[in-house]
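Entry:
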Amino acid sequence: MRRMKKKITIKKRLTSGLILLIAGAIAVAVLIPFVSVVLHSFVAPNAISLNENESARILFLPYPISMKQYLNAILYDRETLIFFWNTVGLTVPILAGGMVVSILSGYGLAKFQFPFKRVVLFTYILVMLLPVQINVVGSYLFFDKLKLIGSRLGVILPGIFSSFGAFLMYQFMKGISDETLESARLDGANELQILIKIVIPQVKSGIASMLILMLIDCWNMVEMPMSILKEERLYPLSIMLRYIGNTDPGIIYAATVVFSIPLLLVFFMAQEQLTEGIKRSGQINLGTVKK
């Protein structure tokens, strides 16, 4: 009996060790590209040259070590700065407007009854599941009718009225007690007061996770700006990273690291909220929605 238990214990340990080994190998493989970019960002600009196919030569160790690429990317390269602030200029209004619209939409879906409520919620989920390319085509046709092709508004408005934020807020707000809200109404509070003083304080973690997920999506968006914006000077850095290294191949590594820093900082500061948001966004249950 003891031998059997010992064999089972050894087998479990071997299985766990094998799983950890595979997971570790996958984690290392995933990190290799980013680690390579970070290492190359510390190489002196003149040490990086182009191959015959115009791609940068890969170096295994940064030598000679230099900070000039970061100085060039942050202080001296005008194009990198313009495209970086283009990204900020698109992301900030999307986050600000999206937070307001998502909170109001989620509150309406979670705590009010209206005709075709289930249809509306199902439509939100369907739009979330559609490929990005389909949404881009629909947005292009819509904004073409409004004469907004080439305008930043054509990129900002779809981000503000994203179905993901509204659905995520619905997931958090539907758990708030209806009796609490009804008591506030009986005490004379209007809906805006209830939303600001009762609902929002209870879903702060949901709002934080929503903003983090929206930030990641907006910061890295490619398809929508490329489709809507017609002038390269309006493009975000997520698109232009491919092109800023044509004249100076070294600067693209430092620019990539600088571009990634805001997302990394947000991720490390708000890991718990992000995990909670992802967990809640996966709890889709249409049966809980009343007709």
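Confidence is low (pLDDT under 50) at residues 284-291.
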